[in-house]
Each structure stands twice: as structure tokens, then as C-alpha cells.
């Protein structure tokens, strides 16, 4: 069960499964330095427990001067342009040697700032391979496409000879094949598309961060973010 150690720290203690005897701490440090000292003290106590431990979240502080650009407030990105823009590396993942020993293949990455001034962080122990013979699955995102019903109608009304039962079975098989081909041509691999677009958005963000006064670079970033939102909506529909 989650445990709120303080306003800045929430702990999850796993008793069984792959992460047995591991501790995961969610961090949201206070913006003021004096108020963060309680968090550092709590983390020191946890560190002395000698448990497999990982801490993830917004630490609201930088480790080096090069992790911050512009302004005084310690914000990850204040979503401003030009001289008012502030960039800080505040979202982190910290783990001890015991965590690494127990989860040797574990890795993480920071995603692009698509919906927030923070960078979402995701991590996992390994990737899940795609099955070689994946069964046919209807995708909800197809319904929103204006050509979907036309594809279904054209496939289903095509002439097939034989008795009613065999015609019905063949029509179903043909429809599945046609929908797979149409999905590949129109939507492509949704996982690949969202990864590629996320990489483009992240690159555009980095370029703008280096030259925050360039409005053309800002316009390009906003365009890519809108494209990313469209693909992300398709992905959400795909998952549902």
C-alpha cells in the first residue's frame, strides 16, 4: 500500500512478485530550499534501510549549473518564450546498487514535454516481444476514419460463390485481410509512428531550448506537438 512519508515523499513497498522487498519512492520536492531539507533527511533514513530502492519524480533542484538556463525560479520549463524562458533539469530517477543488482535490465527514459512543463518518466525491466501470429483485433480508431465504412462495404458486397455458410466464412476472412491491409496503408504501425513523432518533438524542443528567441522554431515545435496530439489520440483509441 502507498505510504505518505511527507508532503514530498510517497513510498510503495512491494512484498511479492518480481519487485519483492523493493521500495519505490515518488518525489515531489518543495520549491523552497529550507523545506526540502526534511525530504533529504527522509531519503537518508530510507537509504540506511539497505533495501532495493528507486526514487522517481520532481526533485526541484539542479545538481550542476549547466542543468539550468535563464531566470531564477527552479522550474523545469516555464513555457515562456525568449528571455523569460526558464529551463531546468528537475525530473530524475535515482536508484541504489541493490536495485540495479535485482533489476539488471531495468532502464528508463524521459519523454517529451507534450502536455506539461515537466518531462514524463517511464521505466521497465524489459520490452515485451510482439507475438509472431497475433490474432485479428478490431481497432476502435478505424471507426473515426471517413473511409472505414466504404472499405467494409466494398469488401463485404464483393461476389463469392458457394453455399451460404462457406460464403459467410470467406467474407469474414476477406474482410479481415482487407482491413489489415487498409490499416497498414492508412495508419501504419501506431507504436512506430508515435515513437518517431515523439523523437521529432523532443528534437524540436532541444533546438528551441538552445535559441528561445527564434519564433520560427517555436512555430515548428507547436506544429509538431499538434501532430503528436493527433497520433497520441489514435494510440489512446487503439489501447481502448
UniProtKB/TrEMBL annotation:
Entries under Gene3D superfamilies matching the protein: Endonuclease/exonuclease/phosphatase
InterPro entries named in the record: Endo/exonu/phosph_ase_sf
Recorded superkingdom: Eukaryota
Name of this protein: Endonuclease/exonuclease/phosphatase
Organism of provenance: Macleaya cordata
